[in-house]
Structure formats: C-alpha cells, structure tokens
C-alpha cells in the first residue's frame, strides 16, 4: 500500500491534469477572443503624447478606442511599450500617494503622542 502523502500528491496531480484538460477543451471550443475584449490595455491604439513625469501624483487613464466587431488587434512591441509606460505611470502615482499618506499619518501620530505625553 502507498503512503497517505503519496496518494494525496497523486490525487492533486490528477486533479490538476483534469483542470488543464478542461481548460484546453474550453479554449479550443470557444475560439480565440479579440485581444481588445480581454486585455484592456490593448484598446487604446494611439501612441501616448508624452510619458508622465515623476512629479505627477495621479496618472490619467489611457484613451479608449472602440474596435469594430470581429476586428482582431495584433500584439505589437508598441502595445508592450504602452503597457510598460502605463504600469510605470500607475506605480509612480501610487508611490506618490503612499508618500503623502505616510507623512500625514506620521504627523497625526506625533500629535497624538504629544497630547498623551503632555497629559492632555
């Protein structure tokens, strides 16, 4: 008889294989989707005017371009550059917000500690 942990491992592998087979059948039966329907960053096809600077606290949303039905979007290096630029702009904005929150929270904690320490 096989050990219990080995049977559990074997059952997990069989379940994973079953999930992969079901996903493969589903994807082949459904057909390929248009990239713009699945990946939101592929909808805007116009190149960005300028890359946002580090001092911008919140980046603007990319423009949305509606594609005619049935038209597929080719994945080009431009789309990957745009994804990287948009991701960088979002990261810069989130970092700026976190820094502002960090300063605000530190000031509030200092005020609370000062009032508690002074006995007020």
How do you describe this structure in short?
The protein is mainly alpha-helical. Helices cover 60% and strands 0% of the residues.
Helix count, per DSSP?
3
Radius of gyration: 25 Å
Q: What letter string, H or E per element, gives the SSE order? A: HHH
Instruction: Provide the residue-averaged pLDDT.
Output: 75
Description:
The longest helix has 41 residues, at 77-117. The model is unreliable at 50-54 (pLDDT under 50). This protein folds into two domains: 1-31; 35-117, no CATH class. The protein is mostly helical and 120 residues long. The chain has helices at residues 4-30, 35-38, 77-117. The protein is 60% helix and 0% strand. The termini are far apart. The protein has three helices and no strands.
Question: Any chance you could write out the topology, listing elements then pairs?
Answer:
Blueprint: H1 4-30, H2 35-38, H3 77-117
What labels describe this entry?
60% helix, 120 residues
């Amino acid at each position: 008889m096989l050990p219990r942990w080995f049977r559990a491992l074997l059952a997990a592998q069989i379940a994973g294989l079953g999930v992969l087979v079901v996903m493969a059948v589903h994807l082949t039966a459904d057909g390929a989707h248009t990239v713009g329907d699945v990946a939101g960053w592929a909808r805007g096809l116009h190149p960005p005017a300028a890359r946002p600077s580090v001092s911008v606290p919140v980046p603007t949303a990319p423009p949305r371009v509606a594609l005619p039905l049935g038209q597929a979007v080719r994945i080009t290096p431009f789309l990957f550059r745009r994804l990287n630029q948009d991701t960088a702009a979002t990261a810069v904005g989130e970092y700026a917000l976190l820094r502002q929150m960090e300063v605000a929270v530190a000031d509030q904690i200092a005020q609370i500690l000062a009032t508690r320490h002074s006995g007020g």
